[in-house]
């Protein structure tokens, strides 16, 4: 990528203090999640992000459960590590998958409904 195509902003955006919008998408007025614009996803993007969120949470919860069980083995306990998948990782992954599907799905339905009324 040539250096002239990289945009850097050394001075603050003139409306940044008034609107409190992030500088990387100052004209976006739709919904945001932790500052990231999330309102303009297509159906495929919504499904991909929902699945990725569920898988990432499953992996993170399973990792933390395995590390906790590993610490428990240092204390002399015998632990079945399959519990990390069945009773920790899977419920957390499914819960986050449903939460992400509900949130992103509702944004998609609202956007499609608003687009149909225009």
Uncertain segments: none
Termini separation (Å)? 39 Å
Please count the beta strands (DSSP E, at least 2 residues each): 2
User: What structural class results from the helix and strand content?
Assistant: mainly alpha
Descriptive keywords:
118 residues; mainly alpha; two-stranded antiparallel ribbon; 3 helices
Commentary on this structure:
The chain has 3 helices and 2 strands, in the order αββαα. It has a two-stranded antiparallel sheet with strand order 1-2. Helix 2 runs antiparallel to helix 3. It has a domain of 79 residues.
List the helices and strands and how they pair.
Blueprint: H1 16-19, E1 32-33, E2 36-37, H2 43-74, H3 82-117
Helix pairs in contact: 2-3
Quick recap of the structure?
This protein has three helices and two strands; from the N terminus they run αββαα. It has 118 residues and is mostly helical. The chain has a domain at 40-118.
């Amino acid at each position: 990528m040539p250096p002239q195509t990289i945009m850097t902003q050394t001075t603050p955006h003139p409306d940044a203090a008034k609107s409190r919008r992030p500088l990387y998408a100052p004209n976006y007025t739709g919904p945001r999640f932790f500052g990231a614009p999330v309102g303009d996803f297509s159906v495929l993007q919504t499904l991909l992000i929902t699945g990725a969120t569920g898988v990432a949470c499953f992996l993170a919860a399973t990792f933390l459960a395995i590390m906790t069980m590993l610490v428990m083995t240092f204390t002399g306990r015998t632990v079945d590590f399959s519990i990390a998948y069945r009773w920790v990782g899977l419920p957390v992954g499914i819960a986050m998958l449903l939460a992400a599907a509900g949130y992103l799905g509702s944004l998609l339905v609202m956007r499609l409904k608003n687009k149909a009324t225009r």
